[in-house]
UniProtKB/TrEMBL annotation:
GO cellular component: plasma membrane
Single biological process term from Gene Ontology: cellular response to starvation
One Pfam family this sequence matches: CstA
CstA N-terminal domain: residues covered: 7-158, 161-282, 306-430
Name this protein carries in UniProt: Carbon starvation protein CstA
Intracellular or extracellular location(s): Cell membrane
């Protein structure tokens, strides 16, 4: 059987997962099509603006699909086929469930941001922690998603338009997208960005077939990492946005405020994550197919990081013009997540202090100091920020999954759709922070995994004992 069949099977699994498991998740949650949405009950012309479903889906996809589903899977390809399994299984049973629950919980709680709906389900202490955690993560995301597209654009343009120039341009766009009404910039430019994104994902896929690229030419069912780094927990942290990402929970409320009906939750939230999983699958496949073996991929990464892999493979597979368009498709991903990251940070801060954002002056009062901090952080080494982002991202996803499990268990619904991935990711995040030498505790992998599994067991037992308790102040008619 030719190796490309494995790619086609993985794509088919994502589609079937959306149809079958996405339907199961929708039924478990209990959609109410006749219930008014925040776009209708809180309309303000700025953030609560009803938009057509095709535009909501496209904006949601571009919001969540930052540089992660490209760079993460490319880095994950160093481990071999385990990366493909995590992208497919993680997307269907963890990432898409996480995105659906975060979006629908936001709708049920009146368009609330992630700290608020987490607090309603896990308690006030979790709410306060999440407020700080979410804002820090969003600013980190915004900064990370300035450096990566700026570097790619600098490679495509004359030397006069250097990295500093593109960083300034991107920051200026982010600032406008943060303070302007959502349908004035984001709602208008995203259809164009979406067309470029679709060209990139489909074009790279088609050209791998047309060019006769040998799919997964050196793949083996073993740990292929050239440095011998362990699959668990590193693959599950490295490949974040292409399989599961807490950042998405900060973005889903943006579109929860623009949806006309709850029944749209499956295509908008679950469906956009499946589309992102496809993008991750494409770039993991490029990493394992365009280069002959993990060592060759590692050499390309050493020469210029994942951006170098994108540049080399895009030009080789699609020629000069097609390569430029493909790279622009990759540039679109982080830009359309960085802008909404800063926007979500503004809304989270405003919600914390109950500060209306209808007028321009209060928006500026939050946005200006936030961007000053972001510009300062942009001077820090990209690799350092990325490591912190990766762990914080998956930790946030874990907390949101636990909040979703608590919401379901109190309503006597099948909480296992959230509980199982929450338990698994608890083990991943704790094991990683114990093992990671530069930002964690630098323990051995065996003891780190033991601690991670123990922490997951403790969390599960605590949830089963305390999960049904009503949180003070939480509305129960949702």
């Amino acid at each position: 059987m030719p190796n490309y069949v494995y790619f086609l099977l993985a794509v088919a699994a994502l589609i079937v997962g959306y149809i079958i498991y996405g339907g199961i998740v929708t039924r478990v949650f209990g959609v109410q099509p006749s219930r008014a949405t925040p776009a209708q009950t809180h309309a303000d012309g700025v953030d609560y603006v009803e938009m057509p479903v095709w535009k909501v889906w496209l904006v949601q996809l571009l919001n969540i699909a930052g540089v992660g589903p490209v760079f993460g899977p490319i880095l994950g390809a160093l481990w071999g086929p385990s990366a493909l399994l995590w992208i497919v299984i993680g997307t269907i049973f963890a990432g898409a469930v996480h995105d659906y629950m975060s979006g629908m919980l936001s709708i049920r709680y009146g368009g609330a941001n992630v700290p608020t709906f987490v607090g309603y389900n896990l308690g006030s202490a979790a709410k306060q922690i999440m407020r700080v955690f979410a804002v820090v993560l969003l600013i980190l995301v915004g900064v990370v998603f300035v450096a990566a597209p700026a570097a790619l654009l600098a490679k495509l343009t004359p030397s006069a338009l250097n990295l500093t120039f593109w960083v300034c341009v991107i920051f200026a766009y982010y600032f406008l997208a943060t303070i302007m009404p959502i349908d004035k910039i984001i709602g208008r430019f995203y259809p164009i960005f979406g067309a470029i994104l679709i060209f990139m994902a489909v074009g790279i896929t088609v050209m791998m077939f047309v060019s006769g690229t040998e799919f997964y030419n050196s793949a083996q069912w073993a740990n292929q990492n050239p440095k011998g780094l362990p699959i668990f927990p590193l693959v599950f942290i490295t490949i974040a946005c292409g399989a599961l990402s807490g950042f998405h929970a900060t973005q889903s409320p943006l579109m929860a405020r623009c949806m006309a009906n709850e029944k749209l939750g499956k295509p908008v939230f679950y469906g956009s994550m499946v589309a992102e999983g496809f993008i991750g699958l494409v770039w993991a496949t490029v990493g394992m197919s365009f280069y002959h073996g993990p060592e060759a991929l590692a050499a390309a990464l050493a020469a210029g990081g994942p951006g170098n892999v994108v540049t080399e493979s895009s030009f080789a597979l699609m020629g000069t013009v097609g390569g430029i368009l493909a790279i622009l498709g990759v540039v679109v991903l982080p830009i359309t997540s960085g802008d909404t990251a800063f926007r979500a940070a503004r809304l989270t801060i405003a919600e914390t202090f109950n500060y209306s954002q209808k007028a321009i002056s209060p928006r500026l009062l939050i946005a200006v100091p936030m961007f000053v901090i972001g510009i300062i952080l942009s001077q820090v080494d990209f690799n350092i920020i990325w490591r912190y982002f990766g762990w914080a991202n998956q930790s946030l996803a874990t907390i949101v999954l636990w909040a979703g499990a608590a919401y379901l268990v109190r309503r006597d619904r099948c909480h296992w759709i959230c509980t199982i991935p929450a338990v698994f990711m608890t083990a991943v995040c704790v094991s990683y922070i114990c093992f990671e030498p530069s930002m964690g505790f630098g323990m051995g992998i065996d003891i780190s995994n033991i601690i991670g599994v123990a922490a997951a067991i403790v969390a599960f037992v605590a949830f089963m004992v305390l999960g049904r308790r009503t949180v003070d102040g939480a509305p129960e008619n949702v």
